[in-house]
Amino acid sequence: MNPAAAVRPGASQGREVPPAQRQAPPAARPGPVETPKVVRLADFAATASSPFIQYEDDVEPYIEQNACPHCKGSGWLRLDSPVGDQNFGKLVPCECTMALKDRKAFEELKKNSNIELFRDLTFDTFNTRVPKTRESFEVARQYAKDPSDWLLFMGNYGCGKTHLAAAIANEALSRHIRLYFAVVPDLLDYLRATFDPNSSETYDQRFEMIRNVPLLILDDLGTENAKPWAREKLYQIINHRYNAKLPTVITTNNDLDTLDGRIHSRVCDQQLCRIFVLQADDYRMYTPEDRARFRQASPPTRQKY
Ligand SMILES: [Zn+2]
Fold it and tell me: Given 53, 55, 118, 142, which is the most exposed site by the fewest CB atoms within 10 A?
């Protein structure tokens, strides 16, 4: 193996240098500390006469054409510190590495949010020209910027409450807020599934995640299976979030009086929960002429609840 391959621009992959050829930095000496300068690793590497760069085992640097102009694709930059400085020889991640980390973190956030099926239900695709939805829309839009308390949207099927709840989730996600979007009957199935011995995740892990996620959206509360187990789990989730005042959005098709009494009393706490009744008629029931009228001056986006 040619150790110089680790630092030569154009090499396809870095290789760890044998221990005998590594050059350990001398011990730091006390003295004035200079602000370290950053040099491009690839520029530095091109002039290096001896191989000495040691890459971390979990980082596979690669150099390719059209790669990042700062690090030439290596992903790392070396601090230009004098010999003896504590930062001498230190590698720091390039901005392209940090951007990649951010993208990966966001993908993880998105994957865990359970919002994939509702990604097209955003504030942009909500038709605010449908009568009697404006106030709820504005409240939801403000809330999504900084979720703090509880919101509950009530209304018949097709009034747009799921669309608003999903729009909150999508907006919050774009702000990198960790959230979980749960259609309540599915949520209970999801919890039950962890009793499957083949499940890679334990029930406790899932339950804890849902209880404590920074923003929880419970869509379609009141239609869940009313068996005691399901009722108890749902109550435990809602009660925990109520006590901890964790941001929560709920939609329901039901009259609040039909909810479990313990849940009813919590959503009716006006200190924590704001309730909005969406009175729009079922948008799906409108004639094509009505729809065309509502769409006037609205962008031609897909409308779906
Ligand atoms: Zn870079």
Answer: 142
What is the Å distance from ligand 1's center to 78 Cα? Answer: 12
- The tens digit of pLDDT for each residue in 118-174 reads 999 999 999 877 777 888 999 999 999 999 999 999 988 878 899 999 999 999 999
Question: Ligand 1 centroid to 272 CA: how many Å?
Answer: 46
CA 76 remoteness from chain centre: 26
Show Cβ contacts of residue 129 under 8 Å, excluding neighbours closer than 6 positions: 293, 294, 295, 296, 297, 298
Domains and CATH numbers, the chain: 1-105 (no CATH), 114-295 (3.40.50.300)
At residue 291 the predicted structure's pLDDT band, cuts being 50, 70 and 90, is low
Task: Give phi and psi for 132, each to the nearest 5.
Answer: 65, 25
- Ligand 1 centroid–CA 161 distance in Å is 44
Torsion of CA 2, 6, 8, 9, to 10 degrees: 140
Here the tokens at position 179 are 């959230």
- Tell me the CA–centroid distance for residue 100 and ligand 1, in Å: 10
